[in-house]
Amino acid sequence: MEAKADDIHIIETPTEFYGALLDGIRSELRESLDSALASNPSLNVHVLVDQMRGTRPDKNARSSSTATLLLPLVKKYPAQTTVSLFEFPSKNPLTKLVPARFNEAFGLQHIKAYVFDNDVVISGANLNTDYFTNRQDRYILIKNNPQVAAYFTSLLKRLRNASLSEMKAALTKFSNKSLAEMPSNALTDAVSISPLESANCDTQSHHSFKLALLVSTRSHLLTLLLKNVAASSETTVVCSSAYFNLPKHFHNLVLQSKARFQFLLAAPEANGFFGSKGVSRHIPFAYTFLPTTSGKK
Length: 297
Description:
Belongs to the CDP-alcohol phosphatidyltransferase class-II family. Residues 105-131 form the PLD phosphodiesterase domain. InterPro entries: PGS1 (IPR016270), PLipase_D/transphosphatidylase (IPR001736). This is CDP-diacylglycerol--glycerol-3-phosphate 3-phosphatidyltransferase. This protein folds into 2 domains: 1-182, Endonuclease Chain A (Endonuclease, Chain A); 218-297, no CATH class. α7 (248-256) links the parallel β9 and β10. It contains 8 helices and 10 strands. It has a 4-stranded antiparallel β-sheet, with helices on both faces. It has a two-stranded antiparallel ribbon with strand order 1-8. Helices cover 29% and strands 15% of the residues.
């Protein structure tokens, strides 16, 4: 997809990230959504969250979760508000037995994209307080681009068809349309999107996702990129990843390449499990260990 470089903004701080979201809804998060829905009957709000993480109580408030936070909006504006809880299908019985903070290891919907009309914020940050105060992540704001906005809106709608959408008061009963029942090309079909009319576009963006059950990846684009730069010792490739864990195929391409690679990785202190109790306290350092051993293989 094409874009103008001047319309792509790298957001540098958590405060600016929060401000970019507020610009889309014009004030405090849930309260501003409430106000915006009340003042604009034609406004539609669709929120897609992971079912396990979205219903997990906040560590500082046992009865509070993303789902309970959004439930009042669904009740107050049922015709304008949709909250989809994506449940990753898993036949592993341990998903019902392990604690809430660990069951997401069996599958997690992790898209963090925010669409406001023709503007899109793509990020690694969720809407947790830490990300608005002292936790730095990656944020890219693409403005005035109906093509990118339409792509993410279409992806959101397709995932909605495989999500739990009926939010009952007790948040215990849902209407489930299983992901396994979706056709294999449900997410991989090309979205019919008109190209930007402007001839001034000078930037290409390629959005990929991975969903093992539907084999829905666009990893061939990354493979092609790595192969194209492999022979050039004058090329520098800059990669950013919060969790460095390259698939073996990509790992081998990087090691065999003559190009110079720079990796921007998250420090252990930026991990949500940093300083936690029990086994989870080792998770941040496991991700630190991976890049130190990768170069030796």
